[in-house]
Design goal:
By secondary structure, the protein is mainly alpha-helical. The chain has one domain (about 10-35, about 45-260). It contains 11 helices and no strands. The protein has helices at about 10-35, 50-70, 70-85, 90-105, 115-145, 150-190, 190-205, 205-210, 210-230, 230-235, 245-260. The longest helix has about 40 residues, at about 150-190. The radius of gyration is 24 Å and the shape is elongated.
Length: about 260
Amino acid sequence: MKKDYNWIKKSQKGLFLENILKKIEELSTLCEQTLNSPNFKTQEEDKNIALQIKAFNGIISDCKMEVKNTDFTHKEYILKTLYDLDINHLTYLQIEEKLDLFMKNHIGSDEDYEGIISLLKKIIYDLDNISQSIQYQVEAIVFTKQSPLFLFQKKLNRYNEKLIKLKKIKDSLQKKLELVSEYLANQLIENFYNFFIFISFLLNTPKIAKNDMLLIKIANILTRYIEIIEPALSNRSLHYKDMIYHYALFEIKELKEQILKSTL
C-alpha cells in the first residue's frame, strides 16, 4: 500500500510537538518530586526479594483460606465493621465511592498517581505518533530525492536529529513511568492482605455476587489496579525481583476473571 506522506500539515505537526513538549515540562517537576521523595522506594533497594516473595505467597494462602472458611454473615460483619460498608443497604453510587476511597487509602498518598501514570502514558503515545510522522517525512525525502544533494542531506540530518531527541525524551519518560508504577506496586503489595480480603469478601457476599452491576463496579477498580502496576513490567525482560509484581497481578486478574465468569 502506498503511504500518504502529507497526512500531517506542518502547522499541525509543529503545534502538536509544542503541546507535547509543554506537557513534558509541566510533568517533569512533579515526577522529580515524586521520585526524590524520602518515602519513595523501589524494589531494587530491597535485598530480601526471596523472603518477600515467600511472605507474599503465605499471605495469599492465608487470605484464600480465610475467604473459604468465613461464612456469609461474618463476611458482612467484617465489611461493615472494618470497611464501613453495609451490604444490606448498598447502592451503585455507594460502592463506587467506597471503592474509590479504598484505593486512595490503599495507595496511601494525596498525590494523583493514577493521573500521573495516565498522563505519562498519553505523552509517550503522542511522542510515538510524532516520531512516526517524522519517520514518514524521512522516507518521503529518501523516496522522492527531488532536492539537490546538499539540501537532501540537510533535510535528512535535521529529521534524524529530531528522531534522536524524541527517543531520548521518550526513554526518560518511560523510566519515570516504570518507577512510579513500581512505587504503587510496592504500596499494593505491602497492604495486599487488606486488599484481597476486602475484594474477596465483596465477591463472596450473596447480594453482590448476584448483582452484575455491582460486580462490574468491582471489576472496574481491579482494572485500575492492573493499569497502574503493568507499566513497571511492560518494557523490560523478566527479572527475579519482578516476580512478586507478577504474582500480585496474577491474583488481581484472577479476581477479575472470577467476576467475568459470574456475569456470563
